[in-house]
Amino acid sequence: MMNQLTDEDTQLACLSSIRRHVNELMTDGFTIIPQSLPGDLCDEIREGFIRFSRLNSEIFIPNDDEYGHYGRIINLHLAYKPLIELFSRNCAALAVMDYLFGAETVIYTSLFYERGSAQAIHRDSPYFTTRPEYKYFGVWAALEDTDEGNGPLAVVKGGHLIPEFDREAMARRYYDNLDKIDPASSQLWQAYQDELGRECARRGLTTETLCVKKGDTIIWHPQAPHGGAPIHDLRRTRFSFVMHTTPIGVPVYHQNVFFHLSKPVSDAAPWEYATRNGRRYAKFVEIGFMERNRVYRVDDFHA
Ligand SMILES: O=C(O)CCC(=O)C(=O)O
Predict the structure, then answer these.
(1) How far apart are CA 97 and CA 117, in angstroms?
(2) In percent, how much of the chain has pLDDT > 90?
(3) d(CA 45, CA 41)
(4) Are 72 and 117 in contact (CB under 8 A)?
(5) What does the pLDDT average to over 176-181?
(6) C or N: which end of the chain has fewer Cβ atoms within 10 Å?
(7) Which residue minimizes the CA distance to atom 8 of ligand 1?
C-alpha cells in the first residue's frame, strides 16, 4: 500500500509540474502551457460572447470593423463574467504565477480580442508599472486555434533579458520636470519601444510567432517584447483573452511612475476586489472599445 502523501509531497509534485514553465519564463521570457483550459470551455465562452454581443447589440454594433469583428475590448470580463473562468480554471497558469509572485495572483485588467491585434512589438512595463518593479504578468488564453493567417501572438525570445534603459534620461528629452510626465504619453511610449526594437536588432534576437491551439495559455515575462503578428486574412477571427495579473493588493501605475524612479507612490492598491470561483479580480466599472475610443459602464450591459 502506498504511504499517504504528505503536504510536502504534494507541494513537491506541484513544484515539479510548474518547474518547466517557470524556467522557460526566466530563460526565454515566455512559456506556453498546452491545453491548460478545456476546449469545450473555450467553445462555450466564444459562443456565449456571440450571444452576449447580440443581446447588447446597441453597444457592440457601432464598435465593429468592416469585417464585423471587434478590436481590443478592455475589461469585458466585468460584464461578460464567464471570461473570468479562463483565469480561475487555469490551474497550471495560476500555479506558475502564484509561485513566482509568492502571493495570490489576481486579475488587474484584461483585453478581449475577436481578431488579431497586429500590434507592434513592445514591452508592457511602461504601462503596467509596479513598485517594486515588474510584479506583473501578461496571460494570453487562446479561444480558437491560431496560425500564420489570423495573426498569432509574437514574442522576441530572450528580449526580457535586455537591461532596463536609462529611463529618466529618455523622459528628460520630453519633460524638464519629471513630475509632469503624462501617464499615457505616446511620445515617451514610442521612444522606449523604438529603443527596445533597436536593442533587439543589435543583439540579433529573433521574433517567434506562437501558433498555439485553442485551450493553450501563454504567459509572458513583464519585460518580454511581444506583439501581434500580421493578419494575412482579415476575414478570420482570432478569439483570445489577455489577463494582466499582479499579486493581490499591488497597485499598478503608468508612465509617470515608470519613467520617474524616485516618484513617491503608495504601495496599496486603491481598488477593491471581487471574487468568482474562488479567485479575485480588481473591481472596476468601465469597459472600453479601444479602437473606437468609447467607454461604457458595466451597468450599461444586459447580463
Ligand atoms: O494578442 C495580441 O495580438 C497582442 C497582445 C498584446 O500585445 C498585449 O496585450 O499587450
Answers:
(1) 25
(2) 90
(3) 6
(4) yes
(5) 98
(6) N
(7) 227
Q: How far is the CA of 276 from the centre of ligand 1 (A)?
A: 25
Q: Can you say whether the dihedral through the CA atoms of 216, 68, 116, 187 is positive or negative?
A: negative
What residue owns the CA closest to ligand 1's atom 7?
227
Q: How far is the CA of 3 from the centre of ligand 1 (A)?
A: 47
DSSP of 50-102: HHHHHHTHHHHGGGB-TTS-B--EETGGGTSGGGGHHHHT-HHHHHHHHHHHT
| Lookup: cell for 217 | 495559455
Which ligand 1 atom minimizes the distance to the CA of 226?
A: 7
Q: What is the pLDDT of residue 3?
A: 52
Q: What angle do CA 254, 257, 259 make, to 5 degrees?
A: 100
Q: Which amino acid is at 15?
A: L
Q: Is the CB of 110 under 6 A from ligand 1?
A: no
177 Cα to the center of ligand 1, angstroms: 32
DSSP for residue 6: P
Ligand 1, atom 5, lies closest to the CA of: 227
Name the residue among 282, 263, 290 with its Cα closest to residue 78.
Answer: 282
Residue 71 near ligand 1, beta carbon < 6 Å: no
> DSSP labels for 156-194?
ETTGGGSPPP-HHHHHHTT-SSGGG--TT-HHHHHHHHH
pLDDT-based confidence at residue 4 (cuts at 50, 70, 90): low
Residue 68: the pLDDT is 87
Query: Does 8 score more than 80 pLDDT?
Result: no
Taking all residues of the chain, what is their mean pLDDT, rounded to a whole number? Answer: 95
Between CA 230 and CA 119 the distance in angstroms is: 8
Cα 200 from Cα 227, distance rounded (Å): 14
